[in-house]
Amino acid sequence: MGRFWVILIFSIVYLIGLLGLTLVNWIPSLAPVNGAPGSGATIPLFWLAMYLMALGSGGIKPCVLPLAPTSLTSAARASGRGAPLFSTGSTW
Amino acid sequence: MGLFGRGNPKAADTASPDPLPPPPADDARLLAAEEAKPAAAAALAAPAAPAAPAAPAAAPTTTPAEEAHSAAVGLLGEDGDEWRARTGADLDAAPLRPHRRRLLLLACLCILGNELCERLAYYGVQTNMGELWWLSVVGWMLKKRGGGGVPCRRRCRLPLRRAFPVSRSLAQKKKRSLAPPSPARPTKQTNKTGLYLKKQLGYPADKASQLLQAWKGTVYLTPLVGAYLAGESGEEQRDAGASRTERFLPRRRRSLFVFLRERDRNPCPTAPVRPSEKTLPIRRRLSPSNQIEIKTNQKPKHQTPKRPNDATPPPTPPKNKKQKQTPSWAASGSS
Q1: DSSP-assigned letters across all residues of B242-282
Q2: Which of B63, B98, B206, B226 is the most exposed place for a label (fewest CB within 10 A)?
Q3: In this predicted model, what pLDDT tens digit does every residue of A43-75 receive, in sequence order?
Q4: Which has more pLDDT, B221 or B71?
Q5: Count of CB atoms situated within 10 Å of the CB of B4
Q6: Cβ separation of A76 and B96 shorter than 8 Å?
Q7: Residue of B nearest to A44 (CA)
Q8: Residue contacts between A and B (CB atoms, under 8 Å)
Q9: Domain boundaries, chain B
Q10: What is the dihedral sign for C-alpha B87, B93, B95, B101?
Q11: How do the residues of chain B divide into helix, strand and coil, expressed in percent and rounded to 5?
Q12: At B92, phi and psi to the nearest 5?
């Protein structure tokens, strides 16, 4: 995959994680009440959402910064995909 | 950016209304084709011309065919120019886009905004989920070293006293002077802070901090997955294109290597590289066999026409390396 697709896919994963974290605290049957989880599925869903966020941020973080300088030249744009991440060229 | 910028700023400014220029690989290929065309035409016309009666028919065609062959080698193979131009890894060689300054500003804004949002999210999570998390870690360590809260010999319930034992007289003095120690452990202070994991989900303090640290460790490790997935596509291109000596050099020496090689091919780095100069290796121009032949003034077997570009056209293909290329010349010459 190129950088663009990695960012796109992992952003979706990240958004799913954020949405799950919000829903865990929003849905009344799942929301923790008085220092105890609302149901048995609260804690697994909470950690699932947290680790989805971790995975998504891991896909975004190494790809966003190298995507910026490669967008400055026309060759990278015409090729359709950017330079490989550990590239041998002179980048920043 | 590199030391020796290829881009002409004036040309970049004037080229702004134009659409994006073609990538340099296509440019070089077009140049090679343009230069190979008249040469091939001359080669086709040469046997019919009366100017070269003594030369065999296959002889004049060797030079343009060889040139085209070496041009193809220079474009496709050994030094990976095409790869670098196609992937845009060589940013200095690639033509700059016209609105580069604005794009640079935009890229900087994106990077700064990304960092800002990341820091905001990080400290938001950190404060709400793990405020004073380090205190719970310290309490957990002290509890471990204190034997899990077992009261010590002197009925002191503080695990700190057991973890860092003082001398008996000093301890007795302190114990006499001080009030009897409260049974509360220092880790219980962290339970008062409003944390999500402890207050809402009901985790104990040490387990909450452990889980949070495990999650943070995952956050710091998952960029490896993303980097692997993003760099996966470059593997075959890199193996096909780039030369190995260049790949294993460090970056600065590598750029110096590239610069020296390009300077060998073309003395002026801003001028477009002509394919004949680019693809004619300097080793052949300076090879000792050629010099010896020039010195002794031997007559080559095949009479080659004089070319202004090439100072030393190969009179006879040498036995060691050029033997492989001879069938291709012969085939192109006969056709």
Answers
A1: S-HHHHTS-HHHHHHHHHHHHHHH-S-SSSPPPHHHHHS-H
A2: B206
A3: 899 999 999 999 999 998 888 877 766 665 544
A4: B221
A5: 14
A6: no
A7: B201
A8: 163
A9: 9-105+316-334, 131-231
A10: positive
A11: 60, 0, 40
A12: -75, -35
CB-nearest to B219 from A58, A69, A89 is: A58
CB atoms within 10 A of CB B323: 10
Chain B residue with minimum CA distance to A39: B201
B 192-221 near A (Cβ less than 8 A) = 199-202, 211, 215, 218-219, 221
Q: How far is B265 from chain A (nearest CA, A)?
A: 19
* Cα gap B186→B140, rounded to integer Å: 10
- The answer to whether the CB atoms of B234 and A86 lie below 8 A apart is yes
The reported pTM is 0.38
User: Which pLDDT score is estimated for B218?
Assistant: 92
Domain count for chain A, please give it. Answer: 1
Q: How many residues does chain B have?
A: 335
Cβ atoms of A68 and B14 within 8 Å: the answer is: no
pLDDT at B20: 45
Of A68, A82, A90, the CB nearest to B255: A90
pLDDT in tens, B11-48: 434 434 444 444 444 444 444 444 444 444 444 444 44
pLDDT tens-digit series, residues B277-318 = 555 555 555 555 544 444 445 555 555 555 555 555 555 555
User: What pLDDT sits at residue B23?
Assistant: 46
A89 belongs to a structural domain: no
ipTM above 0.90, yes or no: no
The CA angle A56-A70-A88, to the nearest 5 degrees, is: 95
- Domain coverage including residue A45: 3-66
The residue whose two tokens read 């919000």 is: A22
Distance CA A30, CA A38 (A): 5
Q: Do B100 and A72 touch (CB under 8 A)?
A: yes
Nearest in space to B312 (alpha carbons), one of B326, B332, B292, B329 = B292
pLDDT digits (tens, 9 = 90+) for B95-116: 555 666 677 787 788 888 888 9
B116 inside 8 A of chain A by CB: no
Testing the interface with B: which of A72, A77, A91 to mutate, by most B Cβ within 10 A? A72
Q: How far apart are CA B294 and CA B303, in angstroms?
A: 15
CA distance B91 to A75: 8
Q: Are B125 and B38 in contact (CB under 8 A)?
A: no
Query: Is B232 a residue whose pLDDT tops 60?
Result: yes
